[in-house]
Automatic annotation (TrEMBL), chains A, B:
This is Phosphate acyltransferase. The gene is plsX. Pathway: Lipid metabolism; phospholipid metabolism. The keyword Acyltransferase applies. Gene3D superfamilies: Isopropylmalate Dehydrogenase. Keywords: Acyltransferase, Cytoplasm, Lipid biosynthesis, Lipid metabolism, Phospholipid biosynthesis, Phospholipid metabolism, Transferase. It catalyses: a fatty acyl-[ACP] + phosphate = an acyl phosphate + holo-[ACP].
Length: 341, 341
């Protein structure tokens, strides 16, 4: 039995989306239990034999400063959900709330693993090979050292080996050229560390990759600092939404193009299915002594259910142990590098 | 009469593309003259009353290290083309060669303007409003200070006011959130500098923008360091090419989808036209005491002609004077900031 603690109040839509997703998720996963965390009148709307309700009187809003969420709202649904993981009552927590607050609370309550300075956020993006590329970090850390990038690579390898059942996933270092000499001093040093880690068998390092490689599917994991990752993710979303906007506009231009839209419908829906960001919803917070997954704030029920499923898969496949083992294996290198820096 | 010095040997395809583009460009621009720079037997293939040939015995290849291009190949077509600008024989130079080499040679020969530490590369990307967003820097500078970002903003404003005839183009600072408190220390300080510059009337600062705003068209100019800009550009190209790949695949799946492709052809070509990166080819190297434009290395004749046209427009509208004037106007702020940092 896998138990998920769900922050039912988080996200742009709150319980109307999260509870609908939970209901669907329970049907699909007969060995899952849910702890629905939130204000009693809201979460009681979903009754199920594998559901338990956990009261939390406060809600972290999307606009709340991290300090407010962390210090003042001590009975928030987000915090109480993570507390369930800390207390061993749940295997993983899932929230669609404010990313900064979620990261801060998770880090405060769960603490980081030995050998990890900073947790990272890892998400998947669709690629041209029909698979997905895992990218980290995505906004948790704006200034990263080479050592942090190495830690991300180790944790990302554990994540992909668990969620995509890849034994030896390939790691690429996001850079502005494939050549070893490219990039800032931090990136060059990260490249050296990743090569050393590969030589020691800690991970499978492909080398430098560029922004387009995320979508080509050149590697399984792309490592970058949170600033760059966030910009790459949002720029990509921007292009995809611009293209879909243009398609809508052009197909509705006149009666002929509208007929063409009907003819092209199967193709367009195949396209939408393949790049539908809802299918990739559910980012892992890695490097903590407990599992936490983050859904997009704007997720609908289908997307939130996807995040639940990903969290469930991670818990069932012992992601935490896998991360811990990989980090421990890389510990001598991590320690040596920290020491020398 | 506007005179362009064209590095005919640069790019993936060399004279077969550059000369074809030049021929077309001459037809469209009766008041333009071209100095065709390159190995004599190659460039002589284009004869025209407004064409003059300038011999250069060497070629900078795409793989040449910057040092090789700069120190050893002193008679390269790239260098000789820029020398024409330096010597006042041409108003602007255009090359599709190796970006790093082009930047290094341009900087070495032309020097930077007073008040500018580092030149930047500025390019346009299509946006959902049907216009284009100018983004800089795109790879010339991997580690930027807040002062550099301010310099980019000032130069980008001059570029857009010249090329798009906008009096007071809006500048956004690329960040991972709209709030002033987001981002690294460098970004926060850049935000402060940009606000001061706006208060002094040096530029029109919108505030922070995110990756997707590039394609939404929220602002006219997006300022970022070269690493982030390069990743954003390439990630965007990656998404666009993944989507076009999926469309091709799905439309060719069976006889029905192939018929649908015929029906949808006008719509698909409208889409392709609107996001065709060839239409946006021609990046400006800003901050030098002379005009240089860079074409994509993989440009075809249409794309290279676009770069020629952009360079021509820049020269005709006195981009260099406009950049110089704007930089001079912002000089007190630039100097004060450098001093305080």
């Amino acid at each position: 039995m896998i138990t998920l603690a769900v922050d039912c109040m988080g996200g742009d839509h709150g319980p109307s989306v999260t509870l609908a997703a939970c209901r669907q998720f329970l049907q699909q996963h007969p060995d899952a239990r849910l702890l629905l965390v939130g204000q009693s009148d809201s979460v009681q709307a979903l009754q199920h034999e594998r559901v338990q309700h956990v009261a939390a009187s406060e809600v972290v809003t999307m606009d709340d400063a991290v300090e407010v969420a962390l210090r003042r709202k001590k009975d928030s649904s987000m915090r109480v959900a993570i507390q369930q993981v800390k207390d061993g009552r749940a295997d993983v927590a899932v929230s669609a709330g404010n990313t900064g607050a979620l990261m801060a609370i998770a880090r405060y309550l769960l603490k980081t693993l030995d050998g990890i300075d900073r947790p990272a956020i890892a998400t998947q993006m669709p690629n041209a090979k029909g698979g997905a590329t895992t990218v980290l970090d995505l906004g948790a850390n704006v200034d990263c050292t080479a050592e942090h990038l190495l830690q991300f690579a180790v944790m990302g390898s554990a994540l992909v080996s668990v969620l995509q059942d890849r034994d030896d996933p390939r790691v690429g270092l996001l850079n502005i050229g494939e050549e070893v000499i490219k990039g800032s001093e931090t990136i060059k040093k990260a490249g050296q560390l990743l090569r050393s880690a590969a030589n020691r068998g800690d991970l499978n390092f492909y080398g430098n990759v560029e922004g387009n490689d995320i979508f080509k599917g050149t590697v399984d994991i792309v490592v970058c600092d949170g600033f760059v990752g966030n910009v790459a993710l949002k720029a990509s979303e921007g292009v995809a939404s611009m293209i879909s906007g243009i398609l809508k506009q052009e197909f509705s231009r006149n009666i002929l193009t509208k007929l063409a839209a009907i003819a092209a419908y199967p193709v367009l829906s195949a396209l939408m299915r393949r790049v539908d960001h809802r299918r990739y919803n559910g980012a892992a917070l890695l490097g903590l002594r407990g599992l936490v997954f983050k859904s997009h704030g704007s997720a609908d029920a289908l997307a939130f259910e996807q995040a639940l499923t990903r969290a469930y898969d991670a818990a069932r496949n012992h992601l935490l142990d896998r991360v811990r083992t990989r980090v421990a294996h890389a510990a001598p290198l991590l320690a040596a590098s920290e020491h020398s820096s």
